[in-house]
Amino acid sequence: MTSHPVSLPSRAATLFAGTARFIDRFQDLFALAIRLYVARVFLLSGLTKIQDWNITLALFENEYQVPFLSPTVAAALGTSAELVLPALLAAGFGTRFAALGLFAFNLVAVVSYPDLSDAGLKDHLLWGALLAVTFFHGPGKLSADHLIRRRFASPAAAAAPTR
Fold first, then answer.
1. pLDDT at residue 13, rounded to an integer
2. What are phi and psi of 160, to 5 degrees?
3. In terms of Cα–Cα distance, which of 28, 30, 37, 29 is closest to 102?
4. 25 contact partners, CB below 8 Å, separation of at least 6
5. Residues 38 and 135 sit within 8 Å (Cβ to Cβ)
6. Across the 163 residues of the chain, what is the mean pLDDT of every consecutive 10-residue run?
């Protein structure tokens, strides 16, 4: 009995599958890195706003053109969003809610600041894309959401992928 040589497409498929399995091992770490990166950006902005509330109010009165809200309400809501949602995102707690909230906040920031530079717009597009990835892909296993799901969900739901 002679063995048949392995075909080139079969070798390529085996190599591809092995490479994909290796890369898949890093998905949860990458999801965490995305969450931490975006959370840091928004949290630092929120911390800047609470350092001098009078300057923040002046910015919302004179620079930012937030529709439908008074400058004081917009400043309070915006600053709260920049402090609370990034903390949730970083911890992976209510991750999809936090990502969606920051995505909406990011969109309002782009629309309400008429003097946004091209570089600033690119930053906001990147943050929006990363938030969309987090919203649709989920937080991964390195998250409070995953731990809570494993602890409190039914066995069938807990066994389902977190993504």
1. 92
2. -70, 150
3. 37
4. none
5. no
6. 77 92 95 98 97 96 90 96 98 98 96 92 98 97 96 73 60
Q: What is the 3-state secondary structure (H, E, C) of the chain?
A: CCCCCCCHHHHHHHHHHHHHHHHHCCHHHHHHHHHHHHHHHHHHHHHHHHHCHHHHHHHHHHCCCCCCCCHHHHHHHHHHHHHHHHHHHHHCCCHHHHHHHHHHHHHHHHHHCCCCCHHHHHHHHHHHHHHHHHHHHCCCCCCHHHHHHHHHCCHHHHHCCCC
CA–CA gap between residue 74 and residue 60 (Å, rounded): 7
Task: Round to whole Å and give the CA distance between 11 and 76.
Answer: 59
Token readout for 98 is 């936090």
Q: How far apart are CA 76 and CA 56, in angstroms?
A: 9
Residue written as tokens 């782009």? 110
What six digits make up the tokens of 48? 């800047």
Answer whether 60's CB lies under 8 Å from 66's CB.
yes
